[in-house]
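REQUEST FORM: STRUCTURE PREDICTION
Request ID: SP-0412
Submitted by: Lab K.M.
Chain count: 1
Length (residues): 273
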Amino acid sequence: MEKLQKAIAEARKTRTGAPVGKKTTRGKTSAQPVVSNGVWDDIPLIMPDAKHMTRNRVVSHKADTASSAFDVLRTKVMQQMQQNGWKRLMITSPMPNCGKTTLAANLAYGVSRQGAKSALLFELDLRKPNLANILGQKPPHDIREVLTGQVPLQDQALRIGPNVAVSMAARRSVDPTRYLTSDETQERLREIEQMYEPDMMIFDMPPLLVNDDARSFLPYTDCVLLVARAESSTSKQIDVCEKEVSEHTNVVGVVLNHCKFADETQGYGYGQY
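STATUS: Completed
RESULT:
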C-alpha cells in the first residue's frame, strides 16, 4: 500500500490540470474537464478499425445515428449512478447470446466521447471471453495477471480514449470464481480505483443463470444493468435475475436487445428502475 501511495503522489505531481474524475462529494464530479495525463497516459492508446468495429456492432466510437441509442443509454445510466453515488456497474444477462459484451463495449466507447468522464471496463466473463475479438485487439497480458497483482494495469489494459481503458481476457479460465471472490482481487480493484479515480467501473460478467460467477461478484458492485434478448429471454428469467440482484445490490435498468421494430431506439429498449 505504501508503494501505491507513492505512485499516486508521483502521478499527481505530473498532472497539469484537474485530477481525472476527481470526486468532490460522493456521487458528484468536479465541473472541470478531464485532462489526459499522469497515470492515464501510461496506458497504451489504441485506434479502432472502423470496419471491424461496425461488423461487430460497436458503433459508439463516433457520434452518428447508429450510436444514438447507446448514447441515450449511457446518459441515463450515468445520471442514475451519479444521483445515487454509485460507481461500480455490472453488466450481465439471464442467458448467453443476449449481447451484453457488445453493449458493454458500446457503453465504454460512448463514455470515451465525453471528455469530462472517465471509465474502466473489465472483462470478467472469463469462461467465454469475447471482448478482444469484438474490438479486434490482443491484450499483452491476461486480466487475471492484473487481478492477482502480477502485472500493473498500465501494462495490461488498452486505452480507447483519453479517459477510458479496457482490461480484457487473453484466454479462458476453467475456474474463474476463485479470482472473482478472492481478497487479493478486491484489494487490487480498490487500488486501481484509488489510483485512476474513474467515474465508472464497468464489469462485463457472465450470464447470471448459467453459473455462480456473476452471483459471486454481486456484493462487490453498486448496481447491475441487465441485458435481455427479445424472443429469447423469458419474463420469468428476467424476474429471477432481478430478484437475485436485489438481494445483494441495485438494478439500474433492463435493456431489451434485438427488438424487431424500426424507430428511434434502433433495436434497443431500456427500462429504468
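NOTES: The longest strand covers residues 250-257.
Reviewed by: T.R.
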